[in-house]
TrEMBL record, chain A:
InterPro entries: Complex1_LYR_dom (IPR008011), Complex1_LYR_LYRM4 (IPR045297). This is Complex 1 LYR protein domain-containing protein. Residues 13-69 form the Complex 1 LYR protein domain. It comes from the Eukaryota. One of its GO terms (biological process) is iron-sulfur cluster assembly.
TrEMBL record, chain B:
This is cysteine desulfurase. Its cofactor is pyridoxal 5'-phosphate. It comes from Citrus sinensis (Sweet orange). One of its GO terms (cellular component) is cytosol. It holds the Pfam family Aminotran_5. The keyword Acetylation does not apply. The keyword Iron applies. Keywords: Iron, Iron-sulfur, Metal-binding, Pyridoxal phosphate, Transferase. GO terms for molecular function: cysteine desulfurase activity; iron-sulfur cluster binding; metal ion binding; pyridoxal phosphate binding. Gene3D superfamilies: Aspartate Aminotransferase, domain 1, Type I PLP-dependent aspartate aminotransferase-like (Major domain). Residues 60-421 form the Aminotransferase class V domain.
Length: 99, 457
């Protein structure tokens, strides 16, 4: 939670969070989760790009920070139990594999 | 051949077991040998399981059977598998207290999603148990005055089977037919009501065809006749707006694993005003006010609660996206194939469920050919049988079309690329099967198949 007295995050901080989320998304070994995390981060920032009220900016920022922490932890968990075989969506030359 | 296979697997396992003797005791070796015979063999080149070889893990389009656990849900659950293992019913120490707080938080998260009070939520093992306790429990409790239940022909197997069980006990059940669009006729429902009707049970979103029943209207009828209304909302929760007041339900079955939560947990909503009472199925320590005894599975409940909270927050976002993917899939297939029919109403349906029939194609062959796409012909519960779905038959779908149905389930984690690949593979497979089909050839020549008199044998 952000305390009311705290100043709203400045632009470089917000961009830093955005980049960190995209970086965290890339770490997911699971195809679907990776794509979702990336997409959700992009769409989330797009949704909030016109926020002007410092309080809502602060709370959106805090929410993003929270999501980043989850993504970092879960990327590790997913990597611990990643299946040996990838999704067919990730295979190099899928056309050859379809019979 | 089979014995050779078992022998070789056995030998492999025994050597493996010997290597890991520290982990697996000898007495488990036989059990391990039996199970490894069915274990998937994975290597860099693909997976082999049940004699099917696939180059990669298939793309998953079976969201009505179950959904993947959302990483945010797992993140909420994991602490309760590690240090916070207390029994939520323990009143004498911190372990119990922290688990109890977590369970009660989850209860409010679930209640919040359906517009109920946390006091009206009873945790169960899943929607099947909730349905069982709703139907059998209510009728057993009020058995002196109420002897009749109304339900529909397209309900989930566990509702129908609970009703069959009641029938054997001497209760009477009316199975209402549905229209060709899968929707129940309200006048027929009204006409079926008797003075001794004790329960009306109609599911919110159908698991096979995705049609949404007119819940508010049915709720009104139940209110008018003062009959308890039960609904199986396992497929509706988190996907369409669910409001127990608007629907006027007395009982509602919910499930965790259909909304990106864990399997093995569900809930039963039980109205407090006017109060509905049930006879418990499971007796014991008196947990959940005696309606469902047994220690609550804290990690699962925390996951279910978290899944509900996320579902509420993400409902609009997910809905927009799933609608776009649904349109992409349907248009993509219809553009390239003729003779494709959507089963169930087009107007009143949950958009993440697309049940299609492909004319002149045999459904099982299509499913077998689509091994890179994880889809099903209908309900997972009945996918083992070759019988056409009873839901589609209730809709009056012709036998041949009912045999060729495929249910595509789109969810939160489905991508555009997956939908495109599914279209490509489905079209390819259907075209291949139609090429081999004499029926399709006859249709193209202009022969009406329905007019053909097949020789009896």
């Amino acid at each position: 939670m952000v305390s009311p007295g705290q100043a709203a995050p400045i632009r470089p901080e917000i961009l830093g969070l955005y980049r960190a989320l995209l970086r965290a998304a890339r770490e997911f070994r699971d195809y679907n989760v990776r794509e979702y995390t990336k997409r959700r981060a992009i769409d989330g920032f797009r949704e909030n790009q016109n926020l002007t009220d410092p309080e809502s900016i602060s709370s959106a920022y805090a929410e993003g920070k929270n999501q980043l922490a989850i993504a970092k932890r879960q990327a590790v968990v997913y990597s611990l139990y990643a299946p040996k075989v990838k999704s067919i969506m990730e295979l190099e030359n899928p056309a050859d594999l379809i019979n | 051949m089979a014995s050779k296979l078992i022998a070789s697997t056995l030998r492999k396992t025994l050597t493996k077991a010997a290597k890991t003797a520290g982990v697996r005791s000898l007495s488990n070796a036989t059990a391990a040998a039996v199970s490894t015979a069915y274990e998937p063999q994975e290597d860099q080149n693909g997976i082999t399981l049940k004699g099917v070889r696939i180059a990669g893990r298939p793309l998953y389009l079976d969201m009505q059977a179950t959904t993947p656990v959302d990483p945010r849900v797992l993140d909420a659950m994991l602490p309760f598998y590690l240090s916070r293992y207390g029994n939520p019913h323990s009143r004498t120490h911190l372990f119990g207290w922290e688990s109890e707080v977590a369970v009660e938080t989850a209860r409010s998260q679930i209640a919040d999603l359906i517009g109920a009070s946390p006091k009206e939520i009873i945790f169960t093992s899943g929607a099947t148990e909730s349905n069982n306790v709703s139907i059998k429990g209510v009728m057993h409790f009020y058995k002196d005055k109420k002897r009749h239940v109304i339900t529909t022909q397209t309900e989930h197997k566990c509702v129908l089977d609970s009703c069959r069980h009641l029938q054997q006990e001497g209760f009477e059940i009316t199975y209402l037919p549905v229209g060709a669009d899968g929707i129940v006729n309200l006048d027929e429902l009204r006409a079926a009501i008797r003075p001794d009707t004790g329960l009306i049970s109609v599911m919110a979103v159908n698991n096979e065809i995705g049609v949404i029943q007119p819940m508010e209207e049915i709720g009104q009828i139940c209110k008018e006749f003062k009959i308890p209304f039960h609904t199986d909302a396992a497929q509706a929760l988190g996907k369409i707006p669910v409001d127990v007041e608007k629907w006027n339900v007395s009982l509602m079955s919910l499930s965790g694993h259909k909304i990106y939560g864990p399997k093995g947990v569900g809930a039963l909503y039980m109205r407090r005003r006017p109060r509905i009472r049930v006879e418990p199925l499971i007796n014991g320590g008196g947990q959940e006010r005696g309606i469902r005894s047994g220690t609550l599975p804290t990690p699962l409940i925390v996951g279910f609660g978290s899944a509900c909270e996320i579902a509420k927050k993400e409902m609009d976002y997910d809905h927009k996206r799933i609608t776009a993917l649904h349109d992409r899939l349907l248009n993509g297939i219809k553009e390239k194939l003729d003779g494709v029919v959507v089963n169930g109403s087009m107007e009143r349906r949950y958009i993440g469920n697309l049940n299609l029939s492909f004319a002149y194609v045999e459904g099982e062959s299509l499913l077998m050919g689509l091994k890179e796409v994880a889809v099903s012909s209908g309900s997972a519960c009945t996918s083992a049988s070759l019988e056409p779905s009873y839901v589609l038959r209730a809709l009056g779908v012709d036998e041949d079309m009912a045999h060729t149905s495929i249910r595509f389930g789109i969810g939160r984690f489905t991508t555009e690329a997956e939908v495109d690949r599914a279209i490509e593979l489905t079209v390819k497979q259907v075209e291949k099967l139609r090429e081999m089909s004499p029926l399709y050839e006859m249709v193209k020549e202009g022969i009406d198949i329905k007019q053909i008199q097949w020789a009896q044998h």
